[in-house]
Design brief:
heterodimer, A: 248 residues, mainly alpha, 79% helix, B: 297 residues, two-stranded antiparallel ribbon, membrane (chain B), Energy-coupling factor transporter transmembrane protein EcfT (chain B), transmembrane (chain B)
Chain lengths: 248, 297
């Protein structure tokens, strides 16, 4: 415990200095740093929440496996269509079954880890942010509400995230265009240019969540009970186990 | 491999400072010549570390991304005084072409630098750096990284076996391929989850979470790390000062200024190049020491 404090202190001071530099750069018309810094800072509450609680080894290994599966899942689809990846699908399903916190973790870690193989860059924090948020919202929405676990609502949710993901990733360029041009039409043109790619991503989510969503949820749910991990609600033992029977 | 040699033998803190600074200055400085100087340094770093093998593997996706950035900017942004031509009724300005090109070079520079990141900042160093700050998150990230090669191998096995049942991602229509891919992943998930349970229990049995975390590899902060860190800090503060005084920046809007470098710009370009190639000094030093020790043979 005594070695923990200085590490936090050092990180905090560095973060403050970097934020200052980014604000200074923004004032001089360079918005690239401020975007990255703000995204990194936005991860702190999630990370703190995850770190604060005592974790079993099983929970950590489970999250690592899910993140690794999400990263590897890009491989069989790499040759199909650019942008047609099941990463968002794996992240959303993880959030649905294991809750918001776990969903965020799987999303963020799979972005970080898959970029070790696909190329790190300034977009890594943005991807961590976008996928983390996809998992987090999936957990918030569907973890305790059986309605959202059904095929159609889940697929609709996936389509939304297909577009949202692209829009979040565009933010770097939007900030850059805005500090230069102050024109909404350029930003609209930018988003319009991205629409086909976002559409492919949304289509992938629709396909995977629509066709494989329930099967994957049933599989993960089985392991959740088997591991006894990441469950801190009495929801499953209590009344509503109907969909569990239905699916597995 | 070659963990104790040259650039890779430096302390993880030095490595992370190097990459953070290299990326930050790569995004702050905005002049094609300055960024090209940095890119040259990054290419040299790639050559010194693995004879640019990884860089060559990345060349095609990198170049295609850069070409996209170059083309998209003038099509979307129409600011600038000097109109080169009209596409329909859309003005293409010299300024946005120049801005797009500089942006593309910036991207090229950062990407090339980050190709070496994987070679230098291995998973062990990553864990060492973040284990004290975020022990659980770092462990999850590290385990996921370690799992990926194993999962890839398993996916290969599954692909081979399932092909005999007609489940393949290389033949048939798009729908069939996508469906097959997802089925392969489903099997992979079930297989890996089962196996992970054992890993977790064996961690538990060895006492995970019972006390303060320790690390097997401990990095010592040696004299060379101190020297490297001080040199990086000196180059970094010189760059920061130059940038704060407005050197290393190309004024694109409203009218493109001359591309010629002022004295300050040249200095910034030189210092940025030195910053990027600084750790290669250790590479050179260790290589010559190795040669000298083998002199008699």
């Amino acid at each position: 415990m005594k070695s923990r404090l200085p590490a936090w202190l050092v990180a905090g001071v560095l973060a403050a200095l970097y934020l200052g530099l980014a604000v200074f750069a923004l004032k001089r018309g360079n918005s690239l740093l401020i975007g990255v810094v703000l995204v990194l800072l936005s991860m702190i509450p999630f990370l703190l929440r995850f770190e604060r609680r005592e974790r079993q080894a099983r929970e950590l290994v489970l999250l690592a496996v899910l993140a690794a599966i999400a990263s590897v899942s890009r491989i069989p689809f790499a040759a199909l269509l650019p942008g047609f990846t099941p990463v968002t699908f794996v992240v959303i399903v993880s959030g649905v079954v294991f809750g918001a916190e776990a969903g965020w973790m799987v999303g963020a870690v799979s972005a970080l880890v898959s970029n070790l193989f696909l190329g790190q860059g300034p977009w890594t924090p943005w991807q961590m942010f976008a996928w983390g948020l996809a998992g987090y919202t999936a957990g918030l929405l569907a973890h305790r509400r059986p309605f959202w676990r059904r095929r159609m609502p889940l697929a609709a949710f996936g389509v939304c995230w297909g577009f949202l993901y692209g829009w979040i990733m565009n933010l770097t360029l939007v900030l850059d265009f805005w500090t230069r041009d102050h024109s909404w039409s350029a930003i609209a043109a930018l988003y319009a240019a991205g629409l086909p790619f976002d559409g492919v991503h949304a289509g992938a989510n629709l396909f995977f969540l629509g066709v494989f969503g329930p099967a994957w949820i049933a599989l993960l749910e089985r392991y959740r009970r088997k591991y006894g991990a990441l469950q801190r609600t009495l929801w499953e033992e209590g009344g509503d186990a109907s969909w569990v029977h239905r699916n597995g | 491999m070659r963990e104790g040699f040259g650039f890779r033998s430096l302390h993880p803190i030095v490595a992370i400072v190097y990459y953070a600074g290299g990326m930050t200055f790569g995004m702050l400085l905005f002049h094609p010549a300055v960024l090209l100087a940095g890119w040259l340094g990054a290419v040299l770093a790639n050559v010194a570390l693995d004879r640019a093998a990884s860089l060559r593997r990345w060349a095609v996706p990198m170049l295609s991304g850069i070409v996209i950035v170059m083309i998209v900017n003038p099509l979307i942004s129409h600011r600038g005084r000097t109109v080169l031509t009209y596409l329909g009724d859309m003005p293409i300005t010299l300024e946005s072409v120049a801005y797009g090109a500089t942006m593309a070079i910036m991207l090229l520079n950062v990407l090339t630098l980050f190709v070496t990141y994987r070679l230098v900042l291995t998973e062990q160093k990553f864990l060492y750096l973040f284990a004290r700050l975020l022990p659980k998150t770092a462990l999850v990230a590290m385990m996921a990284t370690g799992l990926i090669p194993r999962l890839r191998r398993r996916l290969g096995d599954l692909t081979l076996v399932q092909r005999t049942r007609g489940i393949t991602v290389t033949e048939g229509g798009l729908a069939h391929r996508a469906r097959s891919g997802a089925r392969l992943l489903h099997s992979l998930l079930a297989w890996s989850l089962e196996d992970a349970l054992q890993t977790a229990d064996s961690m538990q049995a060895r006492g995970y979470g019972t006390g303060e975390r320790s690390a097997y590899v401990s990095y010592r902060f040696r004299a060379r790390d101190g020297i490297a860190l001080a040199a990086l800090a000196a180059a970094g503060s010189a760059l920061l000062t130059g940038w704060a005084y407005g050197y290393g920046l190309l004024a694109v809007y409203p009218r493109l200024e001359t591309l010629a470098l002022s004295g300050g710009d040249r200095l910034v370009a030189a210092v940025y190049f030195i910053y990027i190639v600084l750790p290669l000094g250790w590479e050179w030093r260790d290589r010559s020491a190795w040669r000298a020790s083998n002199w008699s043979r």
